[in-house]
Amino acid sequence: MQTENHDMGRKPTAKPALPRRIALVNASSRADEKISRHLLDDLAEALPVYARLAGVASPELAYAAPGEKIDACDTVLLGHALRDVAAAQETIATQVTPDTRVYALAYLRDGADSETPPRFSQTEACCEAAGARWMGGLVVCEGSLVLCAAGSPRMGWRRRWVSEPLDRLIMAMLAGSPFDEPVARPTLTARLACALSIR
Q: Which domains are delineated in the chain?
């Protein structure tokens, strides 16, 4: 009895290798490093939980500053204020090795800057020039609200607007896949809660 094999002659599609070691690089200037540090810490805390839920080994996480050695990492996450994008791009140009996956976790401080967040086209070009693989980035609008809500529950209504897209970034990183959800915007209730808490 013959069986028809529709896949005969096709090359198998290679699955992306799962990350083993991820560098978390805070490329923000001193004025903005607290927000970047909080976002990176939040991701670092949640990543092992999602790895366990996904049934994959949790990759080793290594914090680094621009200029520190990260060549042993197969994945790099650049945390930075968008106005510090030049420092992030310098890290790619001078420290990232070829074929490394590069993600970005950037933020805009104020609402006035958040209407049309810039794209990562120049960062992608830097990756191409370095032989690295640009995997996408998340822009957190009104990043100043992140610290305001830091003490509230992670999936509570004050933080969920950034926690949910951050978790989707985590899942993309764990799978070695591109991330294509570029913007996290605060809800009106999150803005109001922060405004009331600082009065």
A: 21-197 (3.40.50.360)
